[in-house]
Each structure stands twice: as structure tokens, then as C-alpha cells.
Amino acid sequence: MLANIRDIQPLIWLYVIALLVGVAGHYIVFRIVQRLTKRTRVTLDNALVNHCYRPFQWIVILLIVRVVGKLPNMKPHIPEVAEHALALVLIALVAWLLVRMTNVLEDYVITRFDVGVADNLKTRKIHTQFRVLKRIAIIIVAILAFGTMLMTFDRVRQLGTTILASAGVIGIVVGIAAQRTIGTFIAGIQIAITQPIRVDDVVIVENEWGRIEEITLTYVVVRIWDLRRLIVPITYFIESPFQNWTRTSADILGTVFIYTDYTVPVDVVREELHNILKKSEHWDGKVCVLQVTNASDRTMELRALMSASNASTAWTLRCEVREKMIEFIKRQYPQSLPKVRAELYRLESNSSSQDN
Q1: Which residues contact 12 (CB under 8 A, 6 or more apart)?
Q2: Residue 53, Cβ density class (10 Å: 0-12 exposed, 13-18 middle, ≥19 buried)
Q3: Residues 6 or more apart in contact with residue 321 via CB below 8 angstroms
Q4: How many CA atoms lie within 13 A of 42 on its CB side?
Q5: Has this prediction a pTM greater than 0.85?
Q6: Side-chain half-sphere exposure of 197, counting CA atoms within 13 A
Q7: Nearest 10 degrees: Cα torsion 331, 336, 338, 341
Q8: What is the 3-state secondary structure (H, E, C) of the chain?
């Protein structure tokens, strides 16, 4: 027993030295690369160093260990199980590195295309496509890595012909059992390509106003105006009608209805609407219309139409116009507020007979 330990002791020391050399070499190279990236303004190289440091470190260490194991004096002493285990770990590390590369691309996209700008239609389109495609890429990498690991086993390789022969039957069974899951996955890909919705779109879903916060392959998160989250299956946006207020642009028209008496001077109210909008910082200066849209037996309906750069601004502008228009009518034309008319008749014949 002691003789066996003494025989493999040089082997252990050689592996330890190789491990320390790999860690030290990678650390030195990483520090040099990190200093170089700090001197540049390129975001991609900084993200590459930050996200890929750990997986690349272990890949370098494992490759050095495998190179040492391939030496002629080392090969007879290394068990076959250990070599197989190192191969499996290397496959997992490469898959980890590829997944981290998607994070590098995500950082680049976020930096290159800022959603916070005013005209962010193209940016939101790119963000939506990338987020869906990133999830698809991660799933594909995981499946390929798992399949490659299985193919390293001889028994699995021998079963390959049988598996391929029965793949048709298995595919039919799996397709029937996972019909909704497959349909959801296809719907997610369709959303990414056709883009009826995008990240940060303003939508009306289930009679709720909100913004698209997150799009996955199976569901969509809608942030409602009161900060609630509405979780909607992604197939909903393929099969059911919904409103998208920012499909082609963020511009939107807002309406305010005012009910007044017939005596109100419409031209004066129209001019006051224009004055209110000119003083408002929420109006984009495009649309300013006041029309009489309806009349009942008691009131006259005035509709004020105005434009804003986005839905949130339009809501604020509508509230502002409604408040100031009502205040203007109350102050300048209080007699033109909605009223109920009534006429009183005095029955003189009955009162004269009673007097007699």
C-alpha cells in the first residue's frame, strides 16, 4: 500500500504544480487584460472580462491538467474513469462559457440601444428580439451539452441506432402529450419575429392599462398603472385581440369630455383650450380640437382632443385640461353649468274660487 502511494506521489505533485501554474497564469493574464480594458471606452471588452472570467479560468486549469495527463509517463497511472470525468467537466465548462457569452451580448445591446430615449421604437424592438433569442440559445446550449455528455458513454452510443429508429414514434407521442407546451414555445418564437408586442409597449389587456415589462417563451409580464403585475400566457397575444398604443409610434391622442348648458359660448371655450395647451409642458403642439359631439335634453357635450408624446403624458395632460376647463367655466360662465329647468304654473281659477 505504501509502495503504491510512493509510486503515485510524483504524479500528485505534478498535478498540484500544474494546477497552481494554471491558476497563477490565468490570474496574471486576467489582471493584464483588465487593465487594458479599463483604458478603453469599449463596453464589449469590459463585459467579456467580467462575465467570462470564472468559466474561462476553470477551462484553462482543466486543459493544463489534461495536457499533463497526456504525458507518456503519466498516462499509465491515470484511471480511465478520471479521464472520462475530466471530459464531462470540460463539456460543462464550455457550455457555461457559452451561456456567459449571451450575458456579454446582452450588456452590449443594453448599452448600445438605450430604452430611456424619447424615440425608442427601434430600441424596444431589438431588446424584445434579443431577450427571446437569448433564452432560446441557452436552452439549445444546455440540450447540446447534455447530449454531448451522453455520447461519451459507449452504451449510449450503441443505443443511438435504436433511438433514431424509434424517434418517429417517440416524436408523435411526445408531440401529442406536450401539444400546449410546444404551441407555447412556437408562439414565443412567433412573438419575437413578428413582434405584435415589444418591451415597454403600452397595451390594454383584460381591460387593464399597462406596459410590457418582460417577455419570455411562455408568458408575458404586464406592469399595470398601479404597479400590479398581470401575468398573461404568451399565446394570448397570438389568439386574442388586445390594444397596443405604441405599435408604430408612442404618439397618442387624448380626449376630455365637458358637459355644459346650451348657453355656453363654444368659440370662447375653444380659445381657452388652446391657451391652456400652449402653457402646458405636456402638450406636443400637434393637435388641439374642441367640438360639440352630442346634445341631450339637458346638457351639451363638448369633446376636447389633444395630442401628447406618449400615453403617460397624455393621461397627465387630460387631467390638467379637464381641471382647468371646469375652473374656467365656473369662473367666467357660471350660468352655463349644467342645470335642470322647470316652469311653475299658478292655478288662478282655483285660488279665486277659494277666496269667494
Answers
A1: none
A2: middle
A3: 254, 256, 273, 276, 277, 280, 304, 306
A4: 11
A5: no
A6: 35
A7: 140
A8: CHHHHHHHHHHHHHHHHHHHHHHHHHHHHHHHHHHHHHHCCCHHHHHHHHHHHHHHHHHHHHHHHHHHHCCCCCHHHCCHHHHHHHHHHHHHHHHHHHHHHHHHHHHHHHHHCCCCCCCCHHHHHHHHHHHHHHHHHHHHHHHHHHHHHHHCCHHHHHCHHHHHHCHHHHHHHHHHHCHHHHHHHHHHHHHHHHCCCCCCCEEEECCEEEEEEEECCCEEEEEECCCCEEEEECCHHHHCCCEECCCCCCCEEEEEEEEECCCCCHHHHHHHHHHHHHHCCCCCCCCEEEEEEEECCCCEEEEEEEEECCHHHHHHHHHHHHHHHHHHHHHHCHHHCCCCCCCCCCCHHHHHHHHC
Give which of 108, 127, 105 is closest to 116, Cα–Cα.
127
Choose among 136, 134, 156, 158: nearest CA to 146: 156
Instruction: Give mean pLDDT in consecutive 10-residue pieces for the chain, a chain of 356 residues.
Output: 48 64 68 64 66 78 71 57 79 89 82 68 74 83 82 65 52 60 77 84 90 87 92 90 83 90 92 94 92 90 92 90 94 87 66 53
Q: Look up residue 297 and give its three cell numbers.
A: 335634453
